[in-house]
Write the structure tokens for this entry.
Amino acid sequence: MLEGFVWRVRRAAKLKGSVNVLVTSSTEVRSLNRRFRGKNKATDVLSFPAGSVRTSKRLVAGDIAISADISAQNAVSLGHSVAEEVKILTLHGILHLAGFDHERDNGQMAREEIALRRRFRLPTGLIERAESTPRTNHRKQGSRARRTK
């Protein structure tokens, strides 16, 4: 189910290459966040652009790590399913892999996320949530990992 969604979003975002999605514990996401961003805390989604690396005759766009724990908490608090939340986070991560950066693009990523969220019939996305609440620690750190919210 997620594999087909990733394929459709990649195509819509014009992202070439495969995307690996890891849905894991907050502990693991915290470890990745600490290792690649120097932030010793769990987060909802991290994106790791591969720079279009070719492995085994396959083009890889990058990896996305999603916290299952935070996804479940968000789903409950926002009133939608965990599956929808994972898709929202996956969509956001794929846009980062496609080169979008909501901190520097004057709303271009936000517009794209809203359009794709509507196209795929998903609830409110990450950028919309962040804009409707006070911003805390909402910035990208480093070139290998991107995190939102």
Q: What stands out?
A: Residues 135-144 have pLDDT under 50 and may be disordered. The chain has six helices and four strands.
